[in-house]
Amino acid sequence: MNVPDHAHRPDPGAALAALRAGHARFRSGEPPAPAAGAGPLAAVLGCAEPQPEPGVLFGGSELFTVRTAGLSIGPAVLGSLEYAVAQLRLPLVVVLGHRCCRLTPGSGDGRIRTVVAALRHRSPLLDEAVRSGRSAIHGMTWDDTRQLVRSVRRVEPPPVRRPARSRPPGRRVAGIS
Ligand SMILES: [Zn+2]
Asked: CA 155 to CA 85: how far, in whole Å?
């Protein structure tokens, strides 16, 4: 049976490592590894603008792929990714955009970070999966010119705004008169 073996599904880090290894195969020109038939390794939200299929970019990895113009997200996309995480129990969602995209209001890392944040903001299910560590959402860009997929560096969320505290009282220095 081709039912994914949930007991042995990789954790988010292992899934990402497998994708990186797959992309290294793609870069080296090796033929894609035949899919293991164990079910998809990760979900990918990719831009619909022409680019190699994510499965090709990641060296023949079996993926659950959703593609939209400029990574736009709506209920259908959120529902598909929630299915991948909750039902297929995939440990990783990759947001794969273009380094330079003709379709979006903005390209590259900033656009990817916005989409990653929006997925968590708009889907409590995805947000909870990330918070619990069961799944991760990882941003990547595809560079057409260099034929290269790179990870988008994560930016720490802004610190929680706290009510302004009164300054700590200045410590009196003893012994000075
Ligand atoms: Zn694009």
From this structure: 23
